[in-house]
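Why does this matter for the project? Reviewers at the last site visit asked to see concrete outputs rather than summary tables. In response, this paragraph embeds two records directly. Each consists of the residue sequence and, immediately after it, the corresponding structure tokens. Nothing has been edited or filtered.
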Amino acid sequence: MTTLFAFYVLIWPALTLGVLALICRAVWRDRRKAREEHRELV
């Protein structure tokens, strides 16, 4: 049971890091596209 609880606790930072990486990748892609089109990101 302790191992299962430890896995449950440790999986959240990994999931959070994955979501953060996904968001950063999308913003980077949008920023690059905006720069190519000579317009602002926002």
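We now turn to the second protein, recorded in exactly the same manner.
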Amino acid sequence: MNKIIATLVQDNLDEILVNWKELMKEDSEERFFQIMSQSVIDNTSREFAELMVSNLLEGENKYENRLNIFTSKVVRFGWSISFVMKAINHFANIVYELLETEKIIVDENIKEYNTILTNWITPMRDGIVDTYAKTWERTVQLQKIALQELSASLIPVFDKISVMPLVGTIDTERAKLIMENLLEGVVKHRAEVVIIDITGVPVVDTMVAHHIIQAADAVRLVGAKCMLVGIRPEIAQTIVTLGINLKDFTTTSTLQRGVEQALAWTNRQIVEVEGN
């Protein structure tokens, strides 16, 4: 029975894929079909169909290897779990209709084929979703580690002046890391002025502001001044709208102005030297 279904799918694969892609475009709000090139869409769709068939014909090890490769790819493409579920359901429905059209499913054996299709689709759906979830969790974890490595270092730029550039979303876990690195850096570099640059922070809400204020208070407790730079117009508007109090902060719009102010605090300034 499995071989009959697999052969039918393989013989009618082009027609199945055309119908499947049309259903996915109509039913899904995902951007995959809008932003990807036609060749990527065609190749990925065919890989998906071959994965569906491989579960009927191949051994468990070979199928699992194909499953892992495919799920890693669609995670990079941004397929959501709901998108994956719709893809499986539409594919199964198209195959069922084809079995009816070809008179393979008739009244006498309808229950038998329904059982076969259920036993085919259900474990496959569970396997794809489970593998997808694990792949997605691993990807998110790697991204989180990369963000932590990129955006939590205190960098000395002049004697007594250090800068901490922040990049990406700040959550409670990252805020703790930022605080630790900030205080360790102040002591290590003997900084008198610390500039926190939020140019790379996409959104400043109440929680992010709270973490930044806590970091500034901690810096002051170890005897250094703190300045906040990189406040874009939209961020300034958000801060005012939310009623966030930054009165204890010196703020500037750019890092350049922040460095100039920090030099002034340490009785220095940038002087242009005329050439001979």
